[in-house]
Amino acid sequence: MSQNFMRHVYGWLLLTPAAILLITFTHYPTIATVINSLFSKGTLIRPSRFVGLANYKMMIEDPIFWKVLSNNAWFAIGTIPTSIILAIVMALLVNRAIPFRFLVRMAFFTPTILPMIAVANIWLFFYTPDIGLIDQIASFFGIGGHNWLGNPATALPSIIIMTIWKEAGFFMIFYLAALQNIPPELEEAARLEGSTRWYYFRRVLFPLLMPTTLFVIINAVLNSFKLIDHLFVLTKGGPDNASNLLLYYIFESAFSFFDTNYAAALTVVLLGLLAVMALMQFYILDKRVHYR
Question: Mean pLDDT in the chain?
Answer without folding.
Answer: 88
